[in-house]
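Propose amino acids for all 426 sites.
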């Protein structure tokens, strides 16, 4: 009895499930390269301090959810819970001298010790996009439009974009002062979780899912009312530009996001088609992060899309893989050598060629070809090897006829012609 299992909250992605992942990733990569966004890869393992300083000690992510351990050199290491802090670290470390304006993306596993449920895992995947060095409202709009268009390109329906402005540090401090006074007065009416946040991270209380707390919060001071004229202007301009692009949005003055680095624009995209874990994309501006982490003063904005949630939402048409073009049935010592040689030649074309390695009977191999719905079959046995010639058979179900051709192993011109006429032309 084998009781070795994957860890709770982690998932094996098996070949048939990965068809959809790969199709989704392909569409995403096309969209990113069309927008001229470049890839960055940072380590999965980082110094714990990076996330404490980058994301904030009082956040749930840092205080409750990180996979942190001492390595053999007694250094505290953490499996990255998100990508933004790592990107900032990498660019600060590199000096950012070559390119002060960068549009970059990353895709890969992230780790958070949360209670697993549909759309929530401990090892999950994100696509992140970060615009570094960009300050204008237009960069906020391009980032939001990019996320919106990626989701649209994947045919995802029932999308809702929510936006808010968290202002700058001064706006937030002014708000915090008044909000803390209000919290003290209303402390006893809040849920326990929110009470505990008063001293650690009061802003997060605004995001509480507790119904009673939500009702009480209706009457609390609103961060939005503490925005300076400049911050408000910026926010109004964001709304104007989104309206111009006809990207529908809803204002949510309680949207604060779970990470401390945000300033000004914060946004989330949810889908009605997801259950309780409805947020498929979250992002915002983080103008102070680079400076706070010891880098130059660098404005920036970005987002991350949860790929597991994206896969749940993406349509079934993305679950289909490309059909096998040629299946090579082969048996016998010499025949198998010819078959291997031929498969290598055929793979120089843009064709999916499967070489049967089972050594099973011809009929079993042919059954497999049939099951795969291969467009063509080549059969190579002792006789074909002796004659130095193989037969390729095309199944044309639409015309309910099969086209066969005998081709000598060394006649590349004939092979080329046949492939061009029958497979490559479609
Ligand atoms: P976040 O809101 O923490 O933002 O995560 C972004 C997205 O990752 C979520 O909306 C969700 O789709 C997905 N996600 C988060 N946790 C889990 C989980 N446990 N299981 C499955 N999916 C999950 C960030 O991480 C920021 N770094 C985004 C950002 C980039 N802001 C600026 N630049």
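Proposal:
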């Amino acid at each position: 009895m084998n009781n070795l299992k994957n860890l709770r909250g982690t998932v094996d992605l098996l070949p048939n499930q990965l068809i959809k992942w790969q199709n989704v990733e392909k569409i995403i990569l096309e969209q990113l390269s069309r927008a001229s966004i470049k890839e960055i890869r940072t380590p999965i393992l980082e110094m714990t301090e990076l996330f404490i300083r980058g994301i904030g000690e009082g956040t749930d992510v840092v205080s409750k959810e990180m996979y942190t351990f001492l390595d053999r050199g007694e250094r505290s290491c953490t499996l990255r819970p998100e990508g933004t802090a790592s990107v900032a670290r990498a660019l600060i470390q590199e000096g950012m001298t070559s390119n002060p304006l960068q549009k970059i993306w990353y895709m890969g596993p992230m780790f958070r010790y949360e209670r697993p449920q549909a759309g929530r895992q401990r090892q999950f995947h994100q696509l992140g996009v970060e615009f570094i060095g960009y300050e204008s409202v237009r960069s906020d709009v391009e980032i939001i439009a990019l996320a919106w268009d990626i989701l649209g390109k994947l045919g995802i329906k029932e999308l809702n974009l929510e936006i808010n402005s968290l202002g700058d540090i001064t706006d937030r401090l002014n708000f915090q002062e008044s909000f803390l006074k209000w919290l003290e007065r209303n402390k006893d009416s809040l849920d326990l979780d929110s009470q505990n946040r008063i001293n650690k991270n009061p802003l997060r209380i605004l995001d509480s899912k507790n119904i009673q707390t939500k009702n009480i919060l209706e009457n609390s001071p609103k961060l939005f009312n503490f925005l300076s004229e400049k911050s408000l202007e910026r926010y109004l301009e964001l709304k104007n530009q989104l309206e111009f692009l006809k990207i529908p949005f809803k204002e949510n003055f309680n949207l604060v996001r779970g990470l401390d680095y945000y300033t000004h624009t914060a946004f989330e995209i949810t889908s009605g088609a997801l259950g309780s874990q409805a947020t498929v994309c979250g992002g915002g501006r983080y103008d102070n992060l680079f400076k706070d982490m010891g880098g130059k003063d660098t404005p920036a904005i970005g987002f991350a899309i949860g790929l597991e949630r994206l896969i749940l939402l993406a349509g079934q048409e993305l679950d289909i893989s490309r059909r096998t073009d040629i299946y090579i049935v082969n048996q016998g010592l010499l025949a198998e050598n010819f078959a291997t040689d031929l498969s290598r030649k055929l793979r120089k074309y843009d064709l999916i060629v499967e070489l049967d390695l089972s050594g099973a009977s011809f009929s079993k191999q042919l059954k497999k070809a049939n099951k795969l719905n291969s467009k063509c079959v080549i059969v190579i046995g002792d006789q074909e090897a002796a004659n130095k010639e193989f037969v390729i058979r095309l199944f044309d179900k639409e015309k309910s006829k099969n086209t066969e051709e005998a081709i000598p192993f060394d006649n590349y011109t004939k092979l080329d012609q046949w492939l061009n006429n029958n497979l490559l032309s479609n």
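The pocket of histidyl-adenosine monophosphate is lined by residues 82-84, 112, 114, 119-121, 124, 126, 128, 130, 258-259, 279-284, 286, 302-304, 306, 308-309 (CB under 6 Å). DSSP finds 15 helices and 16 strands in the chain.
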